[in-house]
Write a structure and sequence with these properties.
Blueprint (H helix, E strand, L loop, with lengths): L2 E7 H6 L1 H8 L10 H12 L6 E13 L6 H18 L2 E8 L23 H14 L6 E5 L6 H9 L3 E6 L6 H4 L13 E2 L4 H4 L6 E4 L10 E4 L12 H10 L23 E10 L4 E5 L4 E5 L17 E8 L2 E3 L2 E3 L1 E8 L12 H9 L37
Parallel strand pairs: 1-2, 1-4, 2-3, 4-5, 5-6, 11-15
Antiparallel strand pairs: 7-8, 9-10, 9-12, 10-11, 12-15, 13-14
């Protein structure tokens, strides 16, 4: 019985669910529990009805970090989805962070002038390296099913076949690289006809039928056995919709934080005096830094920047002006830095090492980091000549970010 392992580019698959929904209906939900078993069966069918052994399903995706706190609920939804894959369907899930540098996750909620483009890293290479890793383990699997669309995986599929493994590709029409769907397969990428996920949507639809479940809420009134069509998580207490609604109404509301906007002032708040200082320390991967003045040191976050300042362009030694949000204070015998707001360039002062001239303009025109193409979505890679090539990544961050 041939052993099958399935490798899913989770970010790519989620970004193409809208294509599947248009075929089946706007409220279509993919059942990730059925997907691996259906793919294994379809590969077996192409082998003359051979029974297969589904060894493991691996999914690779990304999750936002250092985002605007107002979007924390989106991050929780994604984390819950990954937890469900692990706990309910026994997926191996590898997640890699995307640093949003304090911005909103959905692009339409960011400042229109903000050119920030979140970059997904490591997902593709993690998928490819896992395929090769398990291929190097004797008898780990015989057939790899790659749920992909990007052309980036061409080299790894070729290497797998040279190692003696058989390869199947499952993809979505309209978002699949031409190399995968070409029946002639001139690059030698696969051993089976391509599997179109959209041709099996009826079998992959998530259907949760109503069933009797015990509500374990201490606030429940009446018969505890209730009917529900919701997913009941393994090993977790179930609370019926009535009890959850009652809890929401009675739960004291937490004070809301003022809205944070990158490169702009915070919501109106009472601030202290204006001060001038020099940036002495920058924590690039966390998006904050410290300003030294004649009186004290002050902490600032990238969401405190205004006046055209961009965190990624700051340098230690830059002169800035700001208002005091909070003065320094002693906590447990240690003096903590104060907090700055509305951090902006000091008048008549240049940023350290940032005196620009014609050379900078020429550099900005040539450096690909300054000329990323406009992507219609959440993350992606530079695509230039392949703009219309099916299989390129497209992530629409204006869509619902839940899975």
């Amino acid at each position: 019985m041939p052993k099958i392992m399935i490798f899913i580019d989770g970010t790519w698959l989620y970004s193409n669910l809208n294509l599947l929904s248009k075929r089946f209906g706007d409220d279509y939900k993919l059942d990730y529990g059925k997907l691996p078993h259906l793919l294994a069966d379809l590969v077996g069918d192409q082998m003359g009805g051979t029974l297969t052994d589904l060894v493991r399903t691996c999914l690779f995706a990304s999750i936002p970090e250092n985002n605007d706190p107002a979007d924390d609920h989106i991050v929780r939804q994604k984390q819950d989805f990954f937890d469900i894959l692990r706990e309910e369907y026994h997926y191996d899930v590898e997640i890699f962070p995307i640093n949003y540098r304090g911005r909103h996750i959905r692009r339409h909620e960011r400042d229109a002038a903000d050119e920030f483009t979140p970059q997904e890293k490591c997902v593709d290479i993690a998928l490819a390296s896992s395929m090769l890793y398990y291929a190097a383990i004797p008898n780990a699997y015989d057939i790899a099913v790659a749920v992909i669309g990007d052309r980036d995986f061409v080299p790894v599929l070729q290497k797998l076949r040279r190692l003696g493994k058989r390869v199947a590709v499952a993809s979505v029409k309209g978002s699949c690289a031409a190399d995968y769907e070409d029946p002639r397969d001139p690059l030698g990428l696969k051993d089976f006809d391509i599997i179109w996920i959209g041709d099996h949507l009826d079998k992959l639809e998530l259907r949760l039928e109503k069933r009797m479940v015990l509500c374990q809420s201490p606030f429940h009134e009446g018969e505890r056995q209730v009917y529900t069509s919701e997913l009941v998580r393994k090993g977790r207490r179930f609370y019926c919709s009535a009890c959850r609604e009652k809890y929401r109404k009675e739960k004291p509301e937490k004070p809301r934080r003022p809205e944070l906007r990158p490169n702009g002032p915070r919501a109106v708040e009472k601030l202290g005096p204006t001060r001038h200082g020099v940036i002495t320390r920058l924590i690039d991967d966390r998006g904050f830094g410290f300003i030294q003045t004649d009186l004290a040191d002050y902490f600032f976050h990238l969401t405190d920047l205004t006046g055209g300042l961009r965190f990624e362009e700051l340098a230690e030694g830059d002169s800035v002006t700001f208002e005091v949000r909070a003065e320094p204070e002693e906590v447990g015998g240690d003096k903590q830095a104060g907090k700055a707001a509305n951090v902006r360039p000091s008048e008549g002062m240049q940023q350290a090492g940032r005196a620009e001239g014609p050379e900078d303009d020429a550099y900005n025109q040539q450096d690909p980091l300054h000329n990323l193409p406009e992507l219609d979505g959440e993350t992606g890679d530079s695509q230039d000549d392949e703009e219309a090539q099916p299989g390129n990544r497209r992530y629409d961050s204006d869509e619902d970010s839940g899975y």
